[in-house]
Structures are given as structure tokens and as C-alpha cells.
Amino acid sequence: MHTIAQQLDSALEKAASEAKKESLQTLFDANPERVNTFQCHGAGLSLDYSKQRLNDAHRKLLIELGTAAALGTRFEALVHGETVNITEQRPALHTLLRGTAGDKSPERYSEVTSALALMQQLVTDIHSGDRRGFTGQPFTDVVNIGIGGSDLGPRMVSRALWTKTPKLQAHFVANVDPQDLDETLHDLDPATTLFIVCSKSFTTEETLSNALRARDWLLNAGAAQSDVAQHVVAVTTNLEAAGEFGIDTEQCYPMWDWVGGRYSVWSAIGLVLALNLGWDAFTEFLEGGHAMDSHTLDAPVAENLPMTLALLEWWNTLYIGTETHLVLPYAQRLSAFTDFLQQLTMESNGKSATVEGQPIKKPTAPVLWGSAGTIGQHSYYQLLHQGNREFSADLILPLTNGDVDTDAHRKLAANALAQSRAFMIGRNEQEARALAESRGQDQLMAAHYGMSGNHPHSLITFNAVTPKTLGALIAAYEHKTFFLGALFNLNPFDQWGVELGKVIGRQIDKVLASGDGLEALDPSTAKAIEAWRAANA
Ligand code: F6P
Question: Which atom of ligand 1 is nearest to the CA of 146?
Fold first, then answer.
């Protein structure tokens, strides 16, 4: 926990004990102007946090925390390329990828603009038909092969910006399960399919396995070995490994170790988006991220949208005592947004040591989950309303969606706002009894109708999902994640916790293949290996 956060800890504890006694309705009754105060606006987004469980004094305390923790100064350090990734001794310059503070990192910014030029040239060559497949036909489909930050961001953005008239159809393969690639390739034509092998490290087993199988697919369809270069490009920092794999350097698009994988959609990892949607869409996407960077640099804590998101999560997680955080986008376009946020937030802040190596004993990143509304209402909202679980939530509601059916789109908005109101008011005992009576039921039923309500949540609105607003929204959550990591005094840019599984995975793969070495494993693992080998004999 940041030193300032420790100093304010007792004040926050006291404030929270007060806040937990006040219903959201009481807060509105006490201050009708509340809805206008508990707002932030930036880069086309609006945040209404008036349904969060804090009063004016508590809000001022959080602002004091954000100010005293120097969140603004820390963000400037990030944007200016300082070594904020402490354990890997690197900057974290995802902001530079969208042109923010290029003057502060001129050499790196020159690399960024050169990479963008290379990307744009490929996009032009392919969209114009100057670059074609091995039979001379233009490309129609692009398959992105990657996982984690090399998949979730581009997959989500492509989904969000879906259009009836894509430049190329985009497909995404991530799982090492051959079913993923096989299903994707089933309907594609090798002659008109381009592959982008995305791997910052170029050592990720899933991606290399899928890339080898994709290459075989091309060769089995009649492509010569020399044709492969026409159909396969790579995005990586590891040119040597890509070369060993058989992808020559001019088919490699650079990314850098000063960009984290889960923060990399703005880099050449986003190449699939430019091919799918067009170069203009990709540059507008970058502009949206840049706009949120500018807002975050310029806005004081009290008006700073990402800082407010972080301070609210700090308050809810450590003081109100919420167990999980839901992100509920009421837009089918954003149906992959929560999946993307899971890696961004939980791989960034799901840590247990401070940057100084001290143990963090409190819970750090909350479990983030959710899905596009209204789907979850017919799945897990029952638990939200009556499951005795403390949660916080961000409801995201784009106000328009182009020329869709107005009635149906209005129903979507009605559900979003209804759920927000239900999270707030619940159904108290008197109302539950009245409902049972109105149905001529025994008062026992009242116990089944009650709902606590008072679930803290925010509403994020913007006009429509566009490349620009989507860029701003993603950047807002990137910065929220950074600020939350700052408050926890942890490093949000490394991921040491994912290594153990990979090491053991390589060991077990050998035992599965050979059957040797079972005795070194626990009996449960050994038994499962024997079962797998028997089933695949
Ligand atoms: O194992 C986790 C991780 O390293 C993520 O941080 C990363 O986004 C993903 O794997 C893919 O890594 P790469 O882009 O190097 O293949």
C-alpha cells in the first residue's frame, strides 16, 4: 500500500463504517445535487458515480488520497518514459504508441512512427491488391494467431467495430487446442488467407504451435515453401526467434519490450485491425487513446475519469468490502470487452508484493467478471440481487448504435438503467410483504422477494462505439489499472506469476508423450496422465 494510502487508512476505515450505514437512496435524498457532483467527463466519455456508496465528505477524502498519492505526477512519469516497470527495469510506454508525449521519448517515438509507416504500407499493398496470395488472388481473410495481449485486445476491438463491409474478414486463433485453429480454417481458402503471428516474446507455446500448423495448412494446399513469406507476417520483439521459425525480418513488424503485452493493442499487434477495418479506423482508434491520455494528464483528480475509477475501486475493494467487480457493457459490440479487461486488470494488479518486495496482505486486484447486457440478467444477476454477495460494477451504455432498430435499442437501454436502479433500491421488507399480499400469498413468501440493493456501481456513457470512443474507453481502463497499482504500491507491468504453469506444462508434456517420469509427480497428476495416455493410445 502506498505510504499516503497507509496514512489515510484509518480515516478511510472510519468513513467506510459511516458509508455502510447510509443507503444510496438516503444519499440522493440528502443531496439532490449529488448526480451533478459525482460525475467525470473526458475524451467523449461520461462517468456517473452517484450510485457509489460514498457521501460528499467521503468523496473529498478519496480526492485527498489521489492528490496526496501524487497520481498525476506518477502518470506523467509513465508518459514521459520513466522506469515505471520496476522489476523489469523498463518504461511502460503504451501511451507513446498513440503519439502521447513523443517529444519526451524522441528516439522511441521515431521507432513508433517508422513501425506505423511499415504497417500502413502493408495495409495499402494488401487492400490495393498489390500484394496477393500464392495463386495470384487478392487476400480476403486475415487470421491473427496470438494469445493474451497478442489476442484479447485486437479480438475485442475487431468485435466492437464490426462492420457489414470489412476490408478483410478478421479471425482470431489463440488456444493451443487444435480445435481452435481447425474450426477457424475450416471455411477459409488458403490462397486468399493472410496470417499474422503475434507474439511479443515469440516463445509462447500456443502461438508457435498454431503458427506451425497454419504453415502446414498452406503447404498442404499447394503453396510452395517460398510462398509462405507471402502469407505469413509476424509481430514480435524477438526477430531472432522469428527468423529461426522461418519468418524473415522484412515480414516482421516491430514491438518493443517497453510495451506490456496487455497494453499493446496500439502497436503492430493492432495490424489485424487496420487490415480488417482500414487504416483510417486504426488511426482514429489511436486518436481516442491519445485523447484519454490528454484528459488524464490535464484533469485534476476531482475531474479525472481514470483516477476516479481507480479511487472508487480502492474504496470499494478495501473499505466497503466488495469481493468482485463486474463490467457490464450494454452493447453486443462490447461483448468481448470484459474478457479483455480481465487480463488488463488481473494480470496487472493480481499481485502480492510491493515494488520494494514487501508482502501485501490485503486483497489486491478484485476478480473482474461480467458480460454484455442483457445476457447476464438471465444467468447470474439472480446472485447479484439476492446472493448476499458484495460487488461493485461499471455499467457501460453507448447511447446510440447507428441505424439499428430503435425499439430494440431502447429496450437495451431500459434494461441497463433498470438494473442500475434495481442494484440501488432493491426491495425492502415492507415492499416484499406488500408484494406477497398483492399475490394473495403467505407472508413466508416475503422472505423470497426481498433484495438488499445498495450495490455500489457507476454508469459510463458515450454517444456510440466508434474507433475513437473505444480507444478512449480502453485507455481509461489502462490508466485506472495503473493508478490502482500505484495505490497498492505494486508493479502493474510484470507477470511473474504466469511462469510456474508454463515450466510445469513443459515437464508434463514430456511425461504425457513418453510415459516416463510419473514417479516424480503427485499421484493425482500421475493418474490423470495415465488416463490421458490410455484414452489416446
Ligand atoms: O503468459 C502471459 C503472457 O506473457 C501475457 O502477458 C502475454 O500477453 C501473453 O502471455 C502472450 O505473450 P506473447 O505476446 O509473448 O506471446
Answer: 16
